[in-house]
Write a structure and sequence with these properties.
Blueprint (H helix, E strand, L loop, with lengths): L1 H19 L4 H7 L4 H4 L18 H13 L7 H5 L4 H13 L1
Helix pairs in contact: 2-6, 4-6
Amino acid sequence: MKKIASVIMMSALLGLSGSVLAGDAEAGKAKAATCAGCHGAAGISSNPLWPNLAGQQEGYLIKQMKGFRDGTRNDPMMSPMAKPLTDADIDNIAAYYSSL
């Protein structure tokens, strides 16, 4: 009985942890319009200097964008673009690109 309760609890926690990353992809699509100039309209860059964002893991995108915004990661183009983004903006943009 304890084992079943542990499995149910672990499943609930895992399900909850997945929803923590869930941003609003539609809101992210609108906010990502400025990203399209470098990363492509559908998140596929035509320039090898800029990475494809489509299909990247949501948590990875969040970490990288927050790094640019907060200064733990620096890039002359991305850092100023990320600076005004809120946590919600970043979550939404990451949800959008990870959904592609």
